[in-house]
Amino acid sequence: MPIPLRVLASAFHAAFLLTPSVIGAEVESGKQAVVRTMDGYKGIWFDLGQRSEFGSKYSGGLGAYTAKHRPLAVYAPAVQKTFFVYGGTTEPSQRHLLAMASYYDHRSRTVPRPVVVHDKGGVNDPHDNPCMQIDETGRLWVFVSGRARGRPGHLYRSRRPYDIESFEHLSEREFTYPQPWWIDGGGFVFLFTKYTGVRELYWSVSDSKGGNWSQDRKLAGMGGHYQVSNEQSGRVITAFNMHPGGDPDKRTNLYFLQTEDQGDTWRTAGGEHVEPPLTDPQCSALVRDYRSEKRLVYLKDIGFDASGNPVILYLTSSDHRPGPVGAPRMWSIAHWTGLEWTFRDITTSSHNYDMGSLYLEPDGTWRVIAPTEEGPQQHGTGGEIAVWTSRDKGQSWTKALSVTKDSRMNHGYVRRPRNAHPDFYGFWADGNPDSMSESRLYFTNRAGDQTWRLPYHMPEAAAAPEVVVDGQ
């Protein structure tokens, strides 16, 4: 039975607050708009406030948070630019969340001043960070996350292809943890979360122009979930955990689903049809029963191997609190071989919210770029970034090199751009998880042997990122 369509509510425009560091403010007048930019790349700092003996459950520079906002960057070959979004702020002491957009120009090797797409007003929570996509015409779509039912999400589209100078506000709707996937000729498959007392997974699809949208449909409701997803050739895959009793601190189990027809049907990795919403924790989508192993599951990334089979990157832990109590925290992959799921460990980490990305490359190299090494704030979120590689489909892993070292603050949330260019292969933010600090943004190349820091202050309209030497 076809999904009934409805038009998203429109014509809501976010109020922008003027601050001393703002260069301009976007003011709509018919089809004209004056862009509002910031005078540098300043990431949002945040502390969840749930503290135990070894500090906060998670805190620090969270401009590239969360793992469940994806993608945060897209490389556009037509213009040789990597466009990206992040959670910015006016000044660290203000913790005023701004949904920012910008790009790295691979020809000039410069970045412009970043643009404010949406001002979150009094919100300082990076759960409201944006993610983005680019459609087949080159229009940039920015999905600014909401939070629970008290703060709605917002959808924006650039007025011109491959251009960050002006965005139109299309709608306000309920969504958190946005994961939009553009299907050429088909429109969006949009995966997201709704707070219904617990965190449940939903999806919605658009028409081929991203205009009219279907009703929201529930994908899974087993007490709550977090998910990571990806898309290839019209096929959307998702991996998710479940929250026993609705408690995210008890997150466990590993599940997988896929759709090749924009959500009309959902199947397991083995092709078995399932009928959403999933409500049974022991359903056929279960990849591994970590609940019986008394392990917590923190999802990091998901991708496709050379045969199109899914590979899931995740971390398991024995406790939701930071510090030694949760050790060992193990980075692992689950790989569908075409016949069965296999599991391999990569390395260990010091924090549940250490977040990195998985790269499954055409030459057969599997790569993980993540903060697996101990940082200056030992028990805090993040650490030093390292590259891990496998050349036997994930069966064995070797640390290739350290990307950062001798840093002043922990680095965290390494994000993989969609269609990643070798010169802008992962980007992230730093920050002190133990106390409020400034937060700067970085990116690295594919090898991980060169890292750049985006300019914190920009007196000019464009600037070259600074090469980082030993974290300084």
From TrEMBL:
Keyword annotations from UniProtKB, A to Z: Signal
Signal sequence coordinates: 1-24
One Pfam family named in its UniProt record: BNR_4
Name assigned to this protein: BNR/Asp-box repeat protein
The organism's taxonomic lineage, starting at the top: Bacteria, Pseudomonadati, Planctomycetota, Planctomycetia, Pirellulales
